[in-house]
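User
Please review the sequence:
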Amino acid sequence: QLQLVESGGGLVQPGESLKLSCTADVFTLAYYAVGWFRQAPGKEREAVSCITTSGSYTNYAESVKVRFFSSRDNAENTVLLRMNSLKPEDNAVYYCAAGVDCGSDSSDFDYWGQGTQVTVSS
């Protein structure tokens, strides 16, 4: 089973930043668009951002625009999600997923990680 691995989650205070990483051990992430999703307790999973294979195009949910930035280093087989000015409403488990192209629905992505917890609390 091809799987992604997320890292970088943790506990921060409102206004602080975190950087999440997504890597793949057994396949080349550079061939895939990579999306970030999050799921808060009691809520449905929602799309946060997506970056195309070349990194030339990214999209973001309205709730995270100008605060979150996705980038990729294909030589390192890694995609990053930099999260600035974090808010309590950003509390969630964050997942990265790989697919043929960027899509807003989780069904557009074939491979998933196990998720990393982000907690924003004072």
In short: The chain has a mean pLDDT of 94.
